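Figure-free illustration: sequence to structure, shown twice.
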Amino acid sequence: MRDLDYLKLLSKSFPTATAAGAEIINLRAICGLPKGTEYFFSDLHGESDAFIYLMRSSSGIVRDKIDETFGNLLPEEEQLALANLIYYPRDILSDPKHKEQDTPEWQRITLNRLIQICKVVSSKYTRSKVRKKMPKDYAYAIDELLHIDHHDPDKKMYHQGIMDAIIENDLGDEFIVALSELIRNLTIDMLHIIGDIFDRGPHADVIMDELMSFHDVDIEWGNHDADWMGAACGNPACIANVLRIATSYNSFDVLEDGYGINLRPLSMYAEEIYKEDPCECFQPHLLDANVSDSVNPQLAAKMCKAISVIMLKEEGALIRRHPEYHLEHRLLLDHVDYEKGTVEIDGETYPLKDRNFPSIDPKDPYRLTEKEQELMDTLIYSFTHSAKLQKHIRFFFTHGAMYKVVNNNILYHGCIPMDSKGNFLKIQTDRGALSGRALMDWFNEKAIDAYFLNGEVDPAGKLYATDLFWYMWCGPNSPLFGKEKITTFEHCFIEDKKTHIEPFNSYYEFCNDEAAVDRIFAEFGVDSSRGHIVNGHVPVKTKHGESPIKANGKLFIIDGGISKAYHSKTGIAGYTLIYNSRHLALAEHKDFHKGGENTPEIQIVEQMKQRVRVGETDNGRELKQQIADLEELLLAYRNGDLQEKGERILRYREKL
């Protein structure tokens, strides 16, 4: 029997045998329900419109549920209109074009259709759970509408009365919005984001707001996320790189409008130092999603070059601070012949595409000029004092980590570093040589130190941990980066594309090897016969015949390129992995066009042998432990080890 003191504490919540028995019945019933649907997304890269559409459409599942509910009863055009209404109810209802059809009769028909879809998507949940997802003001009415027996004439009249009251009191639109939101909430039970929310696209801040409003979400950090986390902690190399990427993709809105980062000092400095320089090598990528930004491309190019040079200096200082990184070979500014305009890399000399370096002292190339230091001080202050950015980054810590093991699935963004033989790569840390899961845990702990450690109490520890964010972004043995080197300098300054190659870690050679994948399962304590690995980071080149399914269905790489920057390489716009009680499915996204037909193509990739119940999930195991505890409490009541709290005592306490 459990410790009697523990059972006494439990008895405060369940003071009688009847109360304990009722809760046992309730929990056992929940364990028998089908598991909720989990959604896995990766590499969102600021594509807020596309992501919000995928969230609201449940990557095509809402559309399937409409078809399942109405079949041939509704033509394709009406089904699509109903789907769009569920995705964007407020936008559609406020559209002047819609006002012509927004009659009481249209509202009545639409409400009845939404109720029917609600019944379908809520069927595998308890009535209590569904009610918790309802808006409080309308919960009673919606609950009644969902559970009326239309075969009973009195109940049918009762339903009619509720519907009349809604429409006559001009609440039809509000109920349509409420039902649409409920449908969306019921189709996604758990949301997993496998890294890289930030960079390239226009509005990572909007994505973060959407995630923070979701009821059950976790984030497995990506290397681009680590870069922003480092920037929020004040790491100058990370700040400079975040700005380099933003200026190169013309994505200024997320910085200025989203996070209130003042870029005027950077633009003024860039105009001053590169006034006559066309900065041709730094022209921004003008992606469709980013054309709303108002910064002139020529100014953006100057800003990009200015911050890129500063970034190379800041990275050089960081590399020198950490000889344990073994990155001295990446100190390239002191391998430049500034008179000849060449650079030596790995024993070979290359001409530079850009030879104008007014802020670099060839005798001390990594020293910031006075104006550069003033600029960086201003930018560091902006990043560390942006309330919204700090709020979003804190969410990364409260809801995220380097990896997650959930329901027999291992989730991580990049890789588990391996050597050429497929063994877990041992990496020297301040705690000795670490590999596999222990290495992931070490990076996780250091990231937490970087954000939460008091710098005044332990300045050396704070700096060490904060610098690691830069290594997590682009270090050769970083599990988030997964490559031997990052070739930013080469991309910026060297024409020869062979210098641009970034060789992948051996993990990517072995991720299709079932034996290697099984070793990862063993490392993380997951049953290889039932488990899966889900990671992103590397876009799947579908147009070249590459598959996201690896190792005989045990590993999924779901970065198919939701970012517009990848579409030409991949041929698609990414994947969602969907895991419900019956199967695993991949939803292949289309290139998103607002107002168009964007429903993903869904392919079932694994059928469950039998329907998965809540009792077989991680939450189910917790529920079974609660049941076991309650059964012991019930036994303690029955054999006299604990005395039940009588009704008289309970009524007395209620009065108090």
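We now fold a second protein in the same way, so the two outputs can be compared directly.
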Amino acid sequence: MKPVVRRRPGRYVPLTLCALVPILIAGCQAWGQTTELQQGSVVAGVLSPGQTVRYTIDADENEFFLGEVDQVSVDVDIRILDPAGERIGQFGGLGRGPERFSARTESAGTHTIELIVAGDDEDAAGGYEIALLRHEPVATDPKELADQMMARFDSPESPGAAVRVWRDGETIYSKTYGTANLTYGIPFGPDTRTNIGSTSKQFTAFAIMLQAERGLLSLDDDIRTHIPELTEFDGTIQVRHLVTHTTGLREFLNLLRMTGRRLDRGDWIDRSELIDIVQRQPALQNAPGAEWNYNNTAFGLAATIVERTSGQDFHLFMEEHVFGPLGMSGSMVRPSPRHMIPNMSEGYTPTEDGYCQIGDLGGAVGAGAVYSTIVDLQTWVENYASPRVGTRESIDEMMTSFVLTDGEETGYGYGLFIDEQGGLKRVHHGGADVAHRSMLAYYPEINAGITTQSNHAQFDSDTAFELAEAFFGDEMDLEEEEDDEAETGDDFDAENYDPEDFDEFAGRYALDSSPAIIFTFTRDGNTFYGQPPGQERLEMVPVSDSTFRLPGTGASVTFVRGEDGAVEAALLHGSGGDQRATRLADDAKAWEPGAEDLADFAGRFFSDEIETFYTFTVEEGDLVMHQRRLDSATLTPGEKDNFSGGGMSFAFERDRNGQVIGFYVSNGRTRDVRFGRVR
């Protein structure tokens, strides 16, 4: 039996759903049938847990297609496979309503769209509709390419996006897509104010530079000169350390998550907590200036210093000294998530119940909290090119990579990332609040810039970089980028890769920032796998002799050799940047604690620093972490007395008698928060 094919627009209503479900399931499971999707047609069907329904699209190399699954009464996950069966896309997260999917093909042949029921509800059968909305060659015109890349978000039923491109003071392209407010059906427009998240950090750094120009502070000042109630640590934290992410302070969002604050559910955070967090920190995580560690706490303190040296609230300072003089009438700092922002886009997160508004992060002033428009962001970057506010010297210093005490450059200036693209210097910063996404990039050597904004939590801000290549490719040396095979692998023939060559990479690697988190890399025949702790192994595909891509995830792994040629580490590439994992000795056997071993860690623990309890229990042979507001997490053992799970790593501490007396917990940007056993 084939699913119903309807060739007219409208909504499918499964009038006899109970009768159709067993028939369709039996037919699909028995025959494993697939249905070819045709543009302009709508295919209706039903889906049951454990079932995979497949649709095909015949496509040539370098083609674009856009489709939509209307989840009428079932939550669907969507996977796209290329002709070789490799996953090239995965979409899901929205439990009801239209979910769009798209892909650009790299090879000719039959591409497969797989639909499965999301989650593990055994009674989750229901109806859906699938349609192929567009099928065409990948555009060569940059403007048409932008339309293709934004097509997933260009719907009155979807949160939207915006793109603006400029060069030498001329706007090359500016377009908005989708919806700014789903409740009232307000479309995204060029004057829509959007939360730009951490893209705001350059504004805070700029405010610091303005105050330095006026002689009201020095970048060399001890921050306690301006905020004397802060803790006096062994090392002196200077103002410049705040805006370069090199303070050694706890990162407050990561820290508050440890306490059970649910940032994903809109928990309140007040700005005043930043000072309290610093006052409670027993010691710095690193000496000031010695390590780059992305840090929202530092930029919040920088905004406080601007306030104390100016006598104005930060949002008023920015309006009077930056936004107003530059004519950025659509830009403002939101003092708290409760303050009104006229003509704003609401941020939306897809959930099983549909799109949800969670609101903005609290306590974000300085680290984020700027609302702006794509028009204003062009104005802002043009001030970098020809300063009307601030000096050329200050802006150049902001755009210079900071050098650590060991002489290594960080690739980050003052509130700005500094790197290259296609041989051009690139100055940029992305942003992600709870649901808003942002990217602002400037190419000073050609006086050009681009910004992408969205109020959809699944939007990929790095889209801006690919569009920049399309718009500015005439000025880029794109062949130069191909020289780094570890990144592109364009000269690498995966078909000729000898699977046995992977054996020297196989092993266990401990994350440098959280050594209890151990990744395992293995080979099974001709297939390579990477496995995070406590998760299923993921297939990896070679893109060079040392770099492997994890299809459908946007992540990759590059293995690193030491001076002696031996593999010593792995670099994990993801949307949050690169993380290094050091290879463990081959003779280091995995620790496999038994029930009696796990009993040593069971009990209740308390942290004086964050005033929080954690409880550990042994359940069915596993150690399980419980916290009053966090989801319980089954922990995976790493090195002896170390576990990871729930996004955290736990290093337990024993006394001289071998009794477990506490542990240190880390979650990346915040490290070694101590908990002691409650007797």
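Summary for the second example: DSSP finds 13 helices and 40 strands in the chain.
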